[in-house]
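Figure 2 data, in text form.
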Amino acid sequence: MEVLQVLFPGPYTTVQDRGRFGYQQFGVPVTGALDPFAYDVANMLVGNAEDAAVLEATVMGPRFEVLVETDVAVTGGEAVITVNNQGVESWRSFRVKPGDVLNIGQVKKGCRTYIGLTGGIDVPMVMGSRSCYVGAKIGGYEGRILAKGDILKRAVGKLLVSPRQVPKSLIPAYSSEVYLRAVPG
């Protein structure tokens, strides 16, 4: 089912899941969501299976036109989220309808946001995962970052009876500073 049309992809938005395991000896990295907690919560908030694919946006999120009614949750770094220019809170589910414009702005704290949709992002499995590995052009949406005009599909899922949210006490505190670890060599 077609669910979103990309109006603006953000600088680096990919499809991710838990990752691709068992292929490291062949030079294929695990990939998968870089913030597993935010990934898990995005799926939980929209009622998905724990391995459903989500969108992972780095630094600045995408903007979409909604094509079909669906529940959405945005987790991870702190960013301004709007539906039709009206603010929406992160770490909770909300419903969007056809014609709505969903926008995830630049992160203020943290680095990545996770966008979960009813049913999860429907892309083919490659070596047991839907995660995008851009370096090898496999998984995700045609093995690449999202581009303007892409049409995303969602897997089968049921809309929520009522919205879900995470208590503020359980939301991680993301930093606005970057810590780079280095090992002399």
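Caption note: The longest strand covers residues 101-117.
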